[in-house]
Amino acid sequence: MTRSRLVAFAVFVIFCSDVAWGAKPRVEIEVFAEPSLSSSSAAQRWTKTLGDAGFDAVRFRPLRNGDRPDVQTQTVGGSTVVSVTAQLTGRGTLITSAGQITTSESTKLKKWLGDLQSGGGVPAERKTVFGLTGQQFADLKTALGRPIAYATKGQRPEKIWEQIKSTLPVPLTVDPIIEKEMLADEPVRDELQGLATGTVLAALVRPAGGVLVPRPAGKQIELFATQPQRNVDAWPIGWPPEEKDDQKVVPALFEFINVDFPGNPAEDAIAAIQPRLQVPFIFDYNNMARQRVDLKKTVKIPAGKTYYRRILERVLYQAGLKFEVRVDDAGKPLVWITTL
User: Fold this and answer.
1) Dihedral pair phi/psi, residue 184, rounded to 5°
2) What is the CB neighbour count within 10 angstroms for residue 38?
3) CA distances from 20 to 14, 114, 310 (A)
């Protein structure tokens, strides 16, 4: 056999071997997380852990509205590529379509990778971060995306809670401890009218020290207001917007005006800014009470021309606060104000 025929034969044998036995597909993973976690030490540990386990590509990015763990398989140039998405939680745990995995569970991680390489690693019912299937999560997001049509500011939180409960297509219960705290709490301090139901419910229980937790109940889903628990994810008070440019989400933040706050209470300055932005403000009263934030504290902004975002940042900073642009469960913009 000539040399050229020998080479051709060898190539043919290698090709046939790959077809017969099936070359392992390339597995790429994209991990989404809160912006503050995307470049954290936990993200760095996971980058190394996933690389060492055998993933072909690892990428981190900020969480976007609608993100959930998933597995997609496609053919690119005759080769199979498995694209995986997973979520990094604040506890450093990776939420995947196959469940939760920690950096110390190397055996579990390698088994999952093997499943991905052999058949996509997609379980019969893929789970989201809340332990729900994709369809359950979508249905819940739709149910909680309905806006609240009535005013909330100055109303009793338990009264609004019952109003929502009477029309919500999902069972809604509250822990007795949180219920007691809600009854003892002040009337609702923020105007939440027009915001999505899920965002309003989460905001209602926050001042009482509670969180809203979705959980499977057989084939149904129920919502439970309870105390924060380790390793249990809660429904957020607003989501990071898909559009990362705040100017596109809340254009008024970047409008220029002449300003002069020679010495005003922070609450007065905030009250003057909010209607100009035309978006709801939700305050983290729970952490504000813990940190003893006083909105009557005097703040000063020297006279001059600047834009609303800069004014709001400076006013809040002097009071020990900061803000984030978020969107509710239906995609409506809001401003979340919490402690530094």
Assistant:
1) -90, -10
2) 16
3) 10, 19, 63
Closest C-alpha among 237, 218, 219 to residue 286: 237
Look at residue 3 and tell me whether its pLDDT is greater than 60.
no
- CATH code: domain 17-129 is 3.40.50
pTM of the model: 0.63
Question: Residue 229 to residues 91, 137, 184, 211, 225: CA-CA distances in angstroms?
Answer: 12, 21, 22, 9, 11
Looking at the domain that runs over 246-339, which CATH code has it been given? Answer: 3.55.50.60
Give the bridge partners for 74, in sequence order.
81
Tokens of 293: 């934030």
CATH of domain 148-226: 3.55.50
256 to 198, 252, 278: CA distances (angstroms): 33, 9, 15
Q: How many CA atoms lie within 13 A of 118 on its CB side?
A: 7
Long-range contacts formed by 1-6: CB under 8 A, 24+ apart:
none
DSSP assignments along 237-277, one per residue: SSB--SS--HHHHSGGGG-EEEEEEEEEEHHHHHHHHHHHH
80-90: pLDDT as tens digits: 888 899 998 88
